[in-house]
Backbone:
């Protein structure tokens, strides 16, 4: 008897997955529920368990290949019987495939911009269709029609001229390519070319898109963390003994940010076209650095959790992220993000906003340094907090008021940890 191993659906909006690594090879014996292969989607990386015990008799999808959900990726021969080929499960319905465009096939950003620019230029549907097929930005053309309208003659003339230029420059381009190929060949033993992982591709796409979409501005505040440092040191051992978790500074920041977002709901909002979407839930995303990339699991309804609940949630999500145990739901619906490069020694940074959010807080390293207090020099545990915000929605005054509130709450911490 044979059992089919299929590409699972890792969330309602996910219809494809990439096999990044097979943890067993053909002919290996596998046990039910033991990790069989790793997949990557545009949201999470996950280990997929074996659906049955037996011999992995056939691997149909190689590492690095992307397939639709429900595709048979391997066959397990239960109880050591011969191989049994199985047809692929029925593909996703046309309705579902037409309702979502997977990130793996998103067009390049430059093409999207050209289409958007072309829509605002006066032209006929035929001209716009030609422009789309030939990847022409109509805003770069001068129309000879009435009122500057771009005609069919205009775009065909442009394409003819572009072809002439291409024919003239082709020999030069070919020579440059040959020269570069020769140089690369001579240095082949000093370089290594490795394709991006699916996660790295997704990160690259999201970062570039965010810089294009949002008007990034950053403000920096200095905060005295001496009281919180004292509390952490005082209760760290109790947390470890009673709760079994290591107390970090992160839940302090999550608690204070959650409170400040209630005061300034604009920073918990998002922009959709020309509308402002205010989000009543406060879902704090926490950036987790992995050896193979970066992921942002989300603590849902952070404002409703106790300090202990926040500490547990932060540890749980970070551990599951590193063990590839996150689900798509764990990384969805965030309304504000916190990143903490201070654990690596960074003093401050200007992070990129996590779309469709409008702000992200960066926590620097907490270090002791001399500061002036009441005209006297004192030694204090200080930290730089930087807020990157979307100036389309948030003005500098509002961002600074939010940060002033965060600063005051951190420096005047009163909440008990247990």
Residues:
């Amino acid at each position: 008897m044979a059992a089919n191993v299929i590409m699972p659906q890792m969330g309602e909006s996910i219809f494809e997955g990439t096999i990044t690594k097979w943890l067993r090879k053909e002919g290996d014996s596998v046990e039910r529920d033991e990790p069989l292969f790793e997949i990557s989607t545009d949201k999470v990386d996950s280990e997929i368990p074996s659906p049955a015990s037996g011999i992995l008799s056939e691997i149909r999808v190689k590492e690095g290949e992307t397939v639709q959900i429900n595709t048979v990726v391997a066959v397990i021969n239960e109880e050591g019987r011969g191989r049994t080929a199985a047809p692929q499960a029925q593909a996703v319905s046309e309705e579902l495939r037409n309702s979502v465009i997977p990130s793996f096939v998103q067009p390049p950003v430059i093409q999207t911009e050209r289409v958007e620019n072309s829509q605002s230029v006066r032209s006929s549907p035929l001209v716009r269709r030609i422009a789309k097929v030939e990847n022409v930005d109509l805003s770069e053309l001068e129309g000879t029609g009435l009122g500057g309208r771009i005609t069919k003659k205009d775009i065909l003339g442009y394409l003819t001229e572009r072809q002439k230029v291409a024919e003239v420059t082709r020999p030069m381009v070919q020579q440059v390519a040959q020269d570069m190929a020769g140089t690369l060949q001579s240095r082949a033993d000093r370089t290594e070319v490795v394709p991006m992982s699916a996660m790295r591709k997704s990160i690259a796409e999201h970062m570039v898109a965010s810089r294009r979409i949002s008007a990034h501005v950053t403000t920096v505040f200095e905060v005295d963390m001496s009281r919180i440092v004292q509390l952490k040191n005082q209760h760290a051992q109790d947390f470890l003994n009673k709760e079994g978790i290591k107390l970090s500074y992160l839940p302090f920041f999550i608690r204070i940010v959650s409170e400040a977002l209630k005061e300034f709901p604009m920073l918990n909002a998002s922009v959709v076209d020309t509308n402002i979407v205010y989000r009543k839930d406060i879902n704090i995303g926490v950036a987790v650095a992995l050896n193979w990339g970066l992921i942002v699991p989300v603590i849902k309804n952070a404002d409703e959790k106790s300090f202990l609940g926040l500490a547990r949630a932060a540890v749980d999500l970070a551990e599951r992220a590193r063990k590839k145990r996150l689900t798509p739901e764990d990384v969805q619906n965030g309304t504000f993000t916190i990143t903490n490069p201070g654990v690596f020694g960074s003093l401050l940074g200007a992070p990129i906003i996590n779309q469709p959010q409008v702000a992200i807080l960066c926590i620097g390293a907490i270090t002791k340094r001399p500061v002036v207090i009441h005209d006297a020099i004192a030694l204090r545990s200080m930290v730089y907090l930087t807020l990157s915000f979307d100036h389309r929605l948030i003005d500098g005054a509002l961002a600074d008021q939010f940060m002033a509130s965060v600063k005051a709450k951190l420096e005047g911490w009163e909440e008990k940890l247990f």
About this structure: The CA atoms of residues 33 and 49 lie 5 Å apart. Residues 214-411 form a domain with the Chloramphenicol Acetyltransferase fold (CATH 3.30.559.10).
